[in-house]
Amino acid sequence: MASGQAIAEEVGEVGVDWLGNDIKIDAISDPGVSGVTCHVAYFDRGVIDRLQKGNWFEDPSNASIACRQTGPITVSDIDLDEDGEEIFKESRSLVWKKLVVNRIYDKANDTLIYLVNSRQVQDGSAKMSLSTVPLYGQDVTWTEGKP
Fold first, then answer.
1. What does the alpha-carbon distance between residue 107 and residue 125 come to, in Å, rounded to a whole number?
2. Which neighbouring-strand residues pair with 141?
3. Cα 68-4-134 angle, rounded to 5 deg
4. What's the burial of 96, exposed, middle or buried (CB within 10 Å: 0-12/13-18/19+)?
5. Which residue did the predictor score with more confidence, 115 or 42?
6. Which terminus of the chain has a lower count of CB atoms within 10 Å, N or C?
7. Which pLDDT band, with edges at 50, 70 and 90, does 61 fall under?
8. Stretch 81-102: mean pLDDT
């Protein structure tokens, strides 16, 4: 990956119960596509909930994503394969579970697709969320030339 991994910046936190469980919202700027920001919401378990229910080191696999144009779009050398490119990864358990964001370019529809899901060694989760950023009709700069 020439463009590297994105860094999340927490921009919101909403408490959901008295156990200290929260929904956190992070802003993630795409490292390969300047001018696109994704907001990812996920459940974060509190200490009281962890003590009460056990399973101390793991959070649920639930996450949601919304991506939008937030400035002039410049697409650098991104992966154009069907499986796309992982642009963000964050641990959601001590060892086994990761929250990941992948970017896929849909050439036929000139659209960037962003998928957030949980990756696990076994018993992978089917929970996912998808967001798209259409490039059609936009003033987009491709540093390597439009594919």
1. 28
2. 74
3. 25
4. middle
5. 115
6. C
7. low
8. 83
Q: Token match 């086994």: residue?
A: 96
Q: Which amino acid is at 34?
A: S
DSSP states along 83-127: T-EEEEEEESBSSS-EEEEEEEEEGGGTEEEEEEEEE-SSS----
Q: Copy the structure tokens of residue 81.
A: 């394969």
Q: Is 47 helix (H, G, I), strand (E, B) or coil?
A: helix
One-letter amino acid at 83 equals: D
Is residue 33 a contact partner of residue 1, using CB atoms and an 8 Å limit? no
Q: Do residues 107 and 79 touch, judged by C-beta distance below 8 A?
A: no
Could you report how far apart the first and last alpha carbons of the chain are, in Å?
17
Mean pLDDT on 106-121: 89
Closest CA to 115 of 103, 126, 105: 103
C-alpha 8 chain-centroid distance: 9
Q: Is 35 left (phi over 0), alpha (psi -120 to 50) or beta?
A: left
Residues 21 and 14: beta-carbon distance below 8 Å: no
